[in-house]
Every structure is written in C-alpha cells, then in structure tokens.
Amino acid sequence: MKDRWLVLGIAVVVVFALWRASYVPPGYETIDYETVPVLPVEWYNPPILEIWGAMEEQIPFDNRTAKSPMLVMDFDANGSFTYIQFGFFADMEGDPWVHSAFVLRNGSAYLSSQRLDHRPPHAHPLGALAAVDDIPFDELSYGKGMSLKVFYHEQNRTYDDTYNNIYAIENGTLRPLEFISFATTEVWHTIEIYPVDPPDENRTPTAIDQDPRALVVFPPREIGLAERVVYA
C-alpha cells in the first residue's frame, strides 16, 4: 500500500512539472513558495475563488497587471474535482511573471512563480474565475467524469445550432443560447466542459460541436462583448 501511494505521489509531481513546463520556457528564474495553503473541499463546490485568495496572500504580484486566466479542472464521476491547474500573468516589482497553482483533491495548493518576458493583452483573470465559480456544478451530468477548461479567442467566431449546448452564466444559472457571435478586437473567453471517456483506440475523437454532452459557457463579460446574442 505504501508503494502505491508513493507511485501516486510521484505521478502527481510529474504531472505538475510537465504542465508548468508546457507554457513557460526553461532558464527563467522560478520561485516555489514553501507555504502550502489547504483550501476548502466540498462536493460540487471546487475552491475556485479561494485559489485566487491564496495566491494574493502568498505571492506579491501587482493585481492591476494580472492578465490571461489559464484554468483546467478534472472531475470524477461523483462530481468531485480530482485536480485544478490555474495560472495567470502579473508583474512583480515591475517585471513580468507567470504565476501558477496546482490544487490536489485534498485541497493542498502548490504555488509557484516564474519570470517570463511576456505581457499578454488579455482580460483580468477574476472575470473568468468568477464565472466558473458561478456554474451550478450540482446540476451537471458527470457520466464517467469530465474536464473543464478556459480558452481565450483572438478571432471572430459564431456559435449557432451546430452546437448542442451553448449557455450564458447568469447569477448561478446556465441560461441556454440559440446563437452568439463575436466581431471584436478584444480577446474573449469561453468555458468549455468536456466528458471524459475511457481510452479506446478504435474511437474517433469527437469535436465539441459534435458532442451532445459537451457545454460551451460564456461569462458575463463575453455576453457584453458579443456582436449578437439570441437566448433560447
């Protein structure tokens, strides 16, 4: 049993290292914070805004410069999150850094910062985080599990009846949409929720607009930026 937990712990550390390396280049100064906050863990209630609060407390970043939310969450079949990966860009002492959090199922949050010469022209992270926190996770169908990701978009796009499930998030409610289009120079975000299926070499990957189980959710900021919105 001890060997099994050791292997699991090593796997978690490897996943975290690979994830952080996937969006920051090597060779830059890195800070790993020694304090490991333990965030509240509740069924159907992942600690989204609590992650932001912990990072504000532990990392001396300039909130005014915070940009570009990067968020990935995986859930099991029971609706409990298995891990959360969150990152964003923000200056420290006038220099650009990227800050990240890796949160385990038990609520332990591992925080780090890495120096990076990049300042993306994106929105403040709290808008997307608050929208994710507002999603009624207790009303979702998890099947055998699901994954949630926040994506940013720099090109104009239209969502229509090709997509089975498109929603606006409003006051804790997913409000169905029939149509939404974007024609803006602003960077905009979507929250996309995918079902997680067991590995099958014979199954063809399914695009989100072809999977009736997948959801595309638009935060309030994006509803305001949209060129046209038609509610169902």
Give a verbal description of the structure.
By secondary structure, the protein is an alpha+beta fold. It has a domain at 125-231. The protein is built from 4 helices and 12 strands; from the N terminus they run αβαββββαββββββαβ. The chain has helices at residues 2-21, 48-58, 125-134, 220-225; strands at 30-32, 67-75, 81-92, 95-104, 109-115, 146-153, 157-159, 166-170, 173-182, 188-195, 215-218, 228-231. Strands 1, 2, 3, 4, 5, 6, 7, 8, 9, 10, 11 and 12 form a 12-stranded mixed beta sheet that branches.
Quick description:
This protein has 232 residues and is an alpha+beta fold.
Number of strands: 12
Helix content: 10-25%
- Mass-distribution shape: globular
The biggest sheet, with number of strands, parallel, antiparallel or mixed sense and barrel status, is: 12 strands, mixed
Residue share in β-strands: 35-45%
Number of helices: 4
Class derived from helix and strand content: alpha+beta
CA radius of gyration is 18 Å
Overall mean pLDDT stands at 85
Q: What's the SSE pattern?
A: HEHEEEEHEEEEEEHE
Can you tell me the residue ranges where pLDDT is under 50 for at least 5 consecutive residues? 1-23
Distance between the termini: 52 Å
